[in-house]
Design a protein that fits this description.
mainly alpha, 2 helices, 0% strand
């Protein structure tokens, strides 16, 4: 279970990074490009994904 949460957290960090770059107008080719809403959403998803990965990594079974 902890590996699933760890991988999910890493995927959230990657997805949030893409959204943040699009929102910051650094990654072109999407309707999300240049929209500050996606910058904020991307940063929030990065933080949540990093926390999820960190706690999954530190989780002890039993």
């Amino acid at each position: 279970m902890r590996w699933i949460l760890f991988v999910l957290g890493i995927l959230m960090v990657l997805m949030g990074g893409i959204w943040a770059l699009q929102g910051a107008n650094l990654l072109l080719g999407s309707p999300m490009t240049g929209d500050p809403f996606w910058l904020v959403v991307g940063i929030v998803v990065i933080v949540v994904g990093a926390a999820l990965s960190f706690f999954a990594w530190r989780w002890r079974n039993g």
